[in-house]
Design goal:
Length: 69
Amino acid sequence: MYEVHVDQRKCSGAGICVQQMPSVFRFQPGSKKGYAQEPQQPDERADALYHVAMQCPSGAIVVTKKNGA
Ligand code: SF4
């Protein structure tokens, strides 16, 4: 199991995350900042999550592996 978060202080609203993984990332209502609508993500998504995190121009996407589950 993985957890994904967007650091709201770093996010510049570039929207790459929302474009690439719309099932995971959304824009905050009323702003162009991304957030993970479902922070808990299965292992199968890890590669794709890290890929999107590397593409975020602000380095705002944090992917963490959780123990257990
Ligand atoms: S790609 Fe990065 S900067 Fe752009 S909306 Fe997503 S988290 Fe924010």
